Amino acid sequence: MAQRTKITPDAVHHPLFARFYARFSETMDVRAGIEAYRRELLHGLSGRVIEIGAGNGLNFAHYPAAVSEVVALEPERTLRQLAVRAALKADVPVDVVPGAAEALPVKSEAFDAAVASLVLCSVRDLPRALGEIRRVLRPGGELRFFEHGRAEGRTLATVQRGLDRTVWPLLFGGCHTARDPLAAIESAGFEIVTHRRLRVPEKGLAVPSSPCVLGVARRPALGAGE
Protein backbone atom coordinates (compact mmCIF):
# COMPACT_ATOMS: atom_id res chain seq x y z
CA MET A 1 0.00 0.00 0.00
CA ALA A 2 1.29 3.46 -0.89
CA GLN A 3 2.41 5.75 1.87
CA ARG A 4 -0.06 8.45 2.85
CA THR A 5 0.65 12.08 3.66
CA LYS A 6 -0.61 12.83 7.14
CA ILE A 7 -2.84 15.89 6.76
CA THR A 8 -5.45 16.75 9.37
CA PRO A 9 -8.94 17.47 8.01
CA ASP A 10 -8.75 21.20 8.74
CA ALA A 11 -5.09 21.72 7.85
CA VAL A 12 -6.39 23.89 5.01
CA HIS A 13 -8.05 26.86 6.66
CA HIS A 14 -8.63 30.10 4.77
CA PRO A 15 -11.83 31.54 6.30
CA LEU A 16 -11.57 34.99 4.71
CA PHE A 17 -10.79 33.60 1.28
CA ALA A 18 -13.50 30.97 1.70
CA ARG A 19 -16.17 33.63 2.25
CA PHE A 20 -14.92 35.63 -0.72
CA TYR A 21 -14.76 32.53 -2.91
CA ALA A 22 -18.29 31.45 -1.99
CA ARG A 23 -19.75 34.75 -3.18
CA PHE A 24 -17.42 35.15 -6.18
CA SER A 25 -17.95 31.61 -7.48
CA GLU A 26 -21.73 31.97 -7.50
CA THR A 27 -21.42 35.21 -9.47
CA MET A 28 -18.94 33.71 -11.95
CA ASP A 29 -21.17 30.68 -12.53
CA VAL A 30 -23.69 33.04 -14.11
CA ARG A 31 -21.63 35.90 -15.52
CA ALA A 32 -18.72 33.87 -16.88
CA GLY A 33 -20.72 30.84 -17.95
CA ILE A 34 -19.03 28.45 -15.53
CA GLU A 35 -22.35 26.80 -14.71
CA ALA A 36 -22.54 25.51 -18.29
CA TYR A 37 -19.02 24.10 -18.00
CA ARG A 38 -20.02 22.31 -14.81
CA ARG A 39 -22.93 20.64 -16.61
CA GLU A 40 -20.64 19.59 -19.45
CA LEU A 41 -18.05 18.31 -16.97
CA LEU A 42 -20.53 16.01 -15.23
CA HIS A 43 -22.66 14.95 -18.17
CA GLY A 44 -22.97 11.18 -18.57
CA LEU A 45 -21.46 10.20 -15.23
CA SER A 46 -22.82 7.14 -13.44
CA GLY A 47 -22.08 4.95 -10.44
CA ARG A 48 -19.95 6.04 -7.49
CA VAL A 49 -18.13 9.35 -7.85
CA ILE A 50 -15.53 11.05 -5.68
CA GLU A 51 -15.22 14.83 -5.98
CA ILE A 52 -11.93 16.38 -4.89
CA GLY A 53 -12.09 19.81 -3.27
CA ALA A 54 -15.82 20.33 -3.59
CA GLY A 55 -15.66 23.92 -2.37
CA ASN A 56 -19.13 25.28 -1.64
CA GLY A 57 -20.82 22.50 -3.59
CA LEU A 58 -21.75 24.23 -6.84
CA ASN A 59 -21.30 21.01 -8.81
CA PHE A 60 -23.85 19.07 -6.78
CA ALA A 61 -26.92 20.36 -8.60
CA HIS A 62 -25.56 19.12 -11.94
CA TYR A 63 -24.86 15.45 -11.21
CA PRO A 64 -27.01 13.21 -13.45
CA ALA A 65 -29.51 10.79 -11.95
CA ALA A 66 -27.37 7.78 -12.96
CA VAL A 67 -24.87 8.73 -10.24
CA SER A 68 -25.59 6.49 -7.26
CA GLU A 69 -23.39 8.31 -4.74
CA VAL A 70 -21.02 11.26 -4.54
CA VAL A 71 -18.33 11.38 -1.87
CA ALA A 72 -17.28 15.03 -1.82
CA LEU A 73 -14.08 15.96 -0.02
CA GLU A 74 -13.42 19.51 1.15
CA PRO A 75 -10.58 20.32 3.59
CA GLU A 76 -11.56 23.95 4.26
CA ARG A 77 -14.02 24.17 7.14
CA THR A 78 -16.06 27.17 6.01
CA LEU A 79 -16.47 25.87 2.47
CA ARG A 80 -17.30 22.40 3.77
CA GLN A 81 -20.17 23.80 5.82
CA LEU A 82 -21.57 25.48 2.71
CA ALA A 83 -21.12 22.25 0.74
CA VAL A 84 -23.17 20.34 3.32
CA ARG A 85 -26.06 22.76 2.74
CA ALA A 86 -25.75 22.31 -1.01
CA ALA A 87 -25.70 18.52 -0.61
CA LEU A 88 -29.06 18.59 1.13
CA LYS A 89 -30.60 20.14 -2.00
CA ALA A 90 -28.97 17.78 -4.50
CA ASP A 91 -30.98 15.24 -6.50
CA VAL A 92 -28.38 12.52 -5.93
CA PRO A 93 -26.90 11.31 -2.61
CA VAL A 94 -23.92 13.47 -1.67
CA ASP A 95 -21.77 12.79 1.39
CA VAL A 96 -19.54 15.76 2.25
CA VAL A 97 -16.49 14.75 4.28
CA PRO A 98 -13.25 16.39 5.45
CA GLY A 99 -10.11 15.30 3.68
CA ALA A 100 -7.18 16.45 1.60
CA ALA A 101 -6.43 15.38 -1.97
CA GLU A 102 -2.96 14.15 -1.01
CA ALA A 103 -4.39 11.55 1.42
CA LEU A 104 -7.87 10.48 0.35
CA PRO A 105 -9.61 8.69 3.24
CA VAL A 106 -11.22 6.03 1.02
CA LYS A 107 -10.40 2.54 -0.22
CA SER A 108 -8.47 1.83 -3.39
CA GLU A 109 -10.40 1.22 -6.64
CA ALA A 110 -13.67 2.16 -4.94
CA PHE A 111 -15.01 4.68 -7.48
CA ASP A 112 -16.20 4.69 -11.06
CA ALA A 113 -15.23 8.31 -11.62
CA ALA A 114 -13.47 11.24 -10.00
CA VAL A 115 -14.15 14.95 -10.46
CA ALA A 116 -11.56 17.71 -10.12
CA SER A 117 -13.07 21.14 -10.65
CA LEU A 118 -10.92 24.25 -10.13
CA VAL A 119 -8.95 22.51 -7.39
CA LEU A 120 -5.65 21.19 -8.81
CA CYS A 121 -4.33 24.76 -8.75
CA SER A 122 -4.39 24.78 -4.96
CA VAL A 123 -3.45 21.28 -3.78
CA ARG A 124 -0.15 21.30 -1.91
CA ASP A 125 1.41 18.33 -3.70
CA LEU A 126 -0.03 17.94 -7.20
CA PRO A 127 1.69 14.66 -8.19
CA ARG A 128 0.72 13.01 -4.91
CA ALA A 129 -2.88 14.25 -5.21
CA LEU A 130 -3.21 12.84 -8.72
CA GLY A 131 -1.62 9.61 -7.58
CA GLU A 132 -4.28 9.34 -4.89
CA ILE A 133 -7.05 9.99 -7.40
CA ARG A 134 -5.63 7.24 -9.62
CA ARG A 135 -5.47 4.89 -6.62
CA VAL A 136 -9.14 5.26 -5.69
CA LEU A 137 -10.45 4.85 -9.25
CA ARG A 138 -11.26 1.40 -10.57
CA PRO A 139 -9.26 0.35 -13.64
CA GLY A 140 -10.88 2.09 -16.59
CA GLY A 141 -12.44 4.72 -14.32
CA GLU A 142 -12.68 8.32 -15.49
CA LEU A 143 -11.20 11.53 -14.16
CA ARG A 144 -13.34 14.50 -15.22
CA PHE A 145 -11.42 17.77 -14.94
CA PHE A 146 -12.14 21.47 -15.35
CA GLU A 147 -9.07 23.43 -14.30
CA HIS A 148 -7.33 26.71 -14.92
CA GLY A 149 -3.61 26.69 -15.60
CA ARG A 150 -0.61 27.86 -17.56
CA ALA A 151 -1.29 30.21 -20.46
CA GLU A 152 -0.09 29.30 -23.95
CA GLY A 153 0.91 32.88 -24.67
CA ARG A 154 4.37 33.90 -23.43
CA THR A 155 3.36 37.23 -21.90
CA LEU A 156 0.55 35.96 -19.69
CA ALA A 157 2.56 32.85 -18.78
CA THR A 158 5.38 35.09 -17.55
CA VAL A 159 2.92 37.11 -15.47
CA GLN A 160 1.52 33.90 -14.01
CA ARG A 161 4.93 32.63 -12.93
CA GLY A 162 5.74 35.95 -11.28
CA LEU A 163 2.45 36.05 -9.39
CA ASP A 164 2.82 32.46 -8.22
CA ARG A 165 6.17 33.32 -6.65
CA THR A 166 4.78 36.35 -4.84
CA VAL A 167 1.26 37.36 -3.86
CA TRP A 168 -1.25 35.17 -5.71
CA PRO A 169 -1.16 32.05 -3.47
CA LEU A 170 -1.32 34.24 -0.36
CA LEU A 171 -4.35 36.18 -1.60
CA PHE A 172 -6.27 33.29 -3.15
CA GLY A 173 -6.15 30.38 -0.74
CA GLY A 174 -2.99 28.68 -2.01
CA CYS A 175 -3.98 28.91 -5.68
CA HIS A 176 -1.25 28.75 -8.37
CA THR A 177 -1.92 30.03 -11.87
CA ALA A 178 1.11 28.64 -13.74
CA ARG A 179 0.57 24.92 -13.18
CA ASP A 180 -0.04 22.71 -16.20
CA PRO A 181 -2.92 20.41 -15.19
CA LEU A 182 -3.02 18.51 -18.48
CA ALA A 183 0.67 17.59 -18.33
CA ALA A 184 0.38 16.69 -14.64
CA ILE A 185 -2.58 14.38 -15.30
CA GLU A 186 -0.65 12.59 -18.05
CA SER A 187 2.44 12.32 -15.85
CA ALA A 188 0.33 10.66 -13.15
CA GLY A 189 -0.41 7.76 -15.51
CA PHE A 190 -3.80 8.79 -16.88
CA GLU A 191 -4.79 8.53 -20.53
CA ILE A 192 -6.25 11.79 -21.85
CA VAL A 193 -9.47 10.83 -23.63
CA THR A 194 -10.58 14.30 -24.69
CA HIS A 195 -9.94 17.92 -23.76
CA ARG A 196 -10.50 21.43 -24.98
CA ARG A 197 -8.98 24.70 -23.93
CA LEU A 198 -11.17 27.56 -22.75
CA ARG A 199 -10.84 31.20 -21.83
CA VAL A 200 -12.89 32.17 -18.77
CA PRO A 201 -14.50 34.59 -19.17
CA GLU A 202 -14.70 34.25 -22.94
CA LYS A 203 -14.84 38.01 -23.49
CA GLY A 204 -13.21 40.96 -21.83
CA LEU A 205 -9.84 41.28 -20.17
CA ALA A 206 -7.89 38.06 -19.61
CA VAL A 207 -6.76 37.52 -16.02
CA PRO A 208 -4.10 35.09 -14.73
CA SER A 209 -6.76 32.44 -14.06
CA SER A 210 -8.48 32.79 -17.46
CA PRO A 211 -6.75 29.93 -19.36
CA CYS A 212 -8.69 26.74 -18.59
CA VAL A 213 -8.93 23.17 -19.82
CA LEU A 214 -11.99 20.91 -19.68
CA GLY A 215 -11.73 17.23 -20.38
CA VAL A 216 -11.81 13.54 -19.54
CA ALA A 217 -8.94 11.25 -18.60
CA ARG A 218 -8.99 7.56 -17.80
CA ARG A 219 -7.10 5.27 -15.49
CA PRO A 220 -5.80 2.53 -17.81
CA ALA A 221 -7.56 -0.81 -17.58
CA LEU A 222 -5.65 -3.73 -16.11
CA GLY A 223 -3.11 -5.00 -18.60
CA ALA A 224 -2.86 -1.59 -20.28
CA GLY A 225 0.09 -0.08 -18.48
CA GLU A 226 -0.97 -0.97 -14.94
TrEMBL record:
Molecular function, one GO term: demethylmenaquinone methyltransferase activity
Domain Methyltransferase type, first and last residues per copy: 51-144
Any Gene Ontology biological process: methylation
Keyword Transferase attributed: yes
SUPFAM superfamilies, sorted: S-adenosyl-L-methionine-dependent methyltransferases
Enzyme Commission (EC) number: 2.1.1.163
One of the Pfam families matching this protein, by short name: Methyltransf_11
Keywords tagged on the record: Methyltransferase, Transferase, Ubiquinone
UniProt cross-references to InterPro entries, sorted A to Z: Methyltransf_11 (IPR013216), SAM-dependent_MTases_sf (IPR029063), Thiol_S-MT (IPR052356)
Name this protein carries in UniProt: Ubiquinone/menaquinone biosynthesis C-methyltransferase UbiE
Source lineage: Bacteria, Bacillati, Actinomycetota, Actinomycetes, Kitasatosporales
